[in-house]
Amino acid sequence: MSRNIYSALLIFVAMMVSTLAFSGNQQHDHDGHDHSGHSHDQDGHDDDTKTADHDGHGHGDHGHTNSCGIEMEHGPYSPGAAAFHHISDQNIYNIGPWHIPLPCIMYIHGQGLDVFSSGRFAADAHGVGRKAYNKFVLFEGLASRVIDPSFPEGEVELGDHNVYALPEMINGKENEVVYVCYNGKSWKTESRSTLDGGVFGGGLTTFTDFSITKNVMSMLIILLFGFFLFRGIAKSYVAREGMAPKGTQGFMEPIFLFIQDEVCKPFLGHKWEKFQPFIMALFFFILFLNLFGQIPFFGGSNVTGSLSVTFVLAILTFLVVNLNGNKHYWEHVLWMPGVPGWVKIFVLTLVEVMGLFIKPLTLMLRLFGNITAGHMIITIFVGLIFVFGKSGENVPGSIGAIFGSTVLTLFMMAIELLVAFIQAFVFAILTASYIGAATEEAHH
Amino acid sequence: MSLFSIVLMEFNPIKPDLGLILWTVVIFAIFWLLIAKTAFKPIANALKKREEDIQGALDEAKKAKEEMSNLKAANEKLLAEAREERAKMLKEAKETKNKIVTEAKQAAKDEAAKVMNQASLDIENQKKAAMMEVKNEIGAIALSIAEKVIRKELAGNSEQESFVNSLVDDVKLN
User: Fold this and answer.
1) Cβ-Cβ contacts under 8 Å, B43 against chain A
2) Which end of chain B is more exposed for a tag (fewer CB within 10 A), N or C?
3) What residue in A sits closest to B49 (Cα-Cα)?
């Protein structure tokens, strides 16, 4: 019985993957522009020298040449680049073949807010816009802004393949810069501001993106889902008082009780009721987002695999822990009793204070790393089809890879399902233990 | 191009993005506060109440069971006592019965003996009286005979003899 189900599932996934593979191949044949769009990777070595000199860039035999004479190359498929592309946040939401426009809320430094729909970019199958709007263009689902002030405001028709990226050296680091071809001229754009100060290749630019991006949309969906789910359950606890749990209530109760009895009560002591909502909110928020990101062909949003999201969760944990820390806790951090003074000054206090920050840092990186890695591995396993198929040139190879890739993807998805629960649980239990340590009463 | 530079180029999840950070703060805060208020706390309270109810019910059942067993023991004791009482009563009744029967038998015997004695006494008395009467009668008869004989002797022998014979016959007839 169960074996039948598994084999049916395997065939189903194989079919899904094969449709993906073939549709991918068709797209490659159709516009000669590989799905990842990072075909420049392979000849990036010789690009190091000709940084901004993108005009002499096109020399391939196949692929399109856009109106600025830039060759849209068709290099070998790069699974790594495809994976990076797929886990990135975007200004459009892809569900299967549909592109759902999202509201763009752009804060242009020194000018103010600009709010419009990302539908104005008229994105193609790769999330590359055919139109510019108020100097903004869309490349691979992400909005960037033309730097040159002489670029016209409002809606500007660009046509196909006229938004493209070229590798460039910025501050001694290789980076990708998006260009727009308009009026026979290439216009340089810059991406949104990031808070890494250039460490990860970002930095402050002329605008900050406060848009409802794919990740924000996913969080909003999860917020609504969580709200209605838990309100329904809470209502059924009132309506069915004194009765055995049933339906959704019965499904969620063991999970709820598991967190309450195995995480909150043992770690938080008699104060568990005060912090229970925070732990629960963390657990279910992370769990739902982890699981939501794993729904195949439903955007596959990588919310808990974004450092910004895990950063916020970790900061909140840090604040909750340290704002609730009692005298006993601070005494142990700053001036550990029962230890010689010089040990405290030179070692212990230093280590403890570092620990205050390392704890949320590990929370942040653990969740980010696990979820991002899972998403990337799945994308790369699917990408094996293109690698073996040589981007459509070797169809038998890709058919063979479909089966191998299906088994690997299925296995990885099963592991990811486990990881979704484990990481939510680990985040919750560690938070509970930090809060528990901070609020523990002295007993010596 | 090294992997690291690919990461720098394309890897936007690792770049802290102010917009995403802001939205995460807002959405998580709403998730936390709203759901805590509308769901987590009521659910926890309901679960706590139910736990208490179940514990209460279990305790009550245990108590009832204990009471039941106590009651049962008391009942058994009572029953045993009743049984003993009954046995005792039965024994007493039997004894009483036996006593009454014995007494009645004795009384009857005594009475019977008394009646018999009286009867035999009466018979004796009657017999004596009857004998006395017979003696008197016989005496009277003998006297009358003697009288008549004496009278006959006075009239002749033969006549006397026949007369005596007739008298004797008369006596025989009697």
Assistant:
1) 230, 233-234, 237, 256
2) C
3) A242
- Separation in Å, CA of B67 to nearest CA in chain A: 26
Residue with the bigger pLDDT between B47 and A314: it is A314
Same domain, A205 and A235: no
Q: How many domains does chain A have?
A: 2
Considering the domain architecture, whether residues A169 and A264 belong to the same structural domain is answered as no
At A331, which amino acid appears? E
The CA distance from A323 to A317, in Å, is 10
Taking 70 as the pLDDT cut, the residues of chain A under it are 1-67, 69-76, 170-174, 197-202, 391-392, 442-444
- Residues with Cβ within 8 Å of B95's Cβ and at least 6 positions away in sequence, in order, are none
| CA–CA distance, A361 with A367 (Å, rounded to integer) | 10
ipTM for the predicted complex: 0.79
B139 against A398, higher pLDDT: B139
Nearest to A89 among B13, B27, B32 (CB): B13
Distance CA A140, CA A281 (A): 33
The verdict on residue A402 lying in a domain is yes
pLDDT in the model for residue A314: 94
Q: Is residue A241 part of a domain?
A: yes
Smallest CA–CA distance from A238 into chain B, residue: B46
Is A5 within a domain?
no
**pTM of model > 0.90:** no
**Within an 8 Å CB–CB cutoff, is residue A173 touching chain B?**
yes
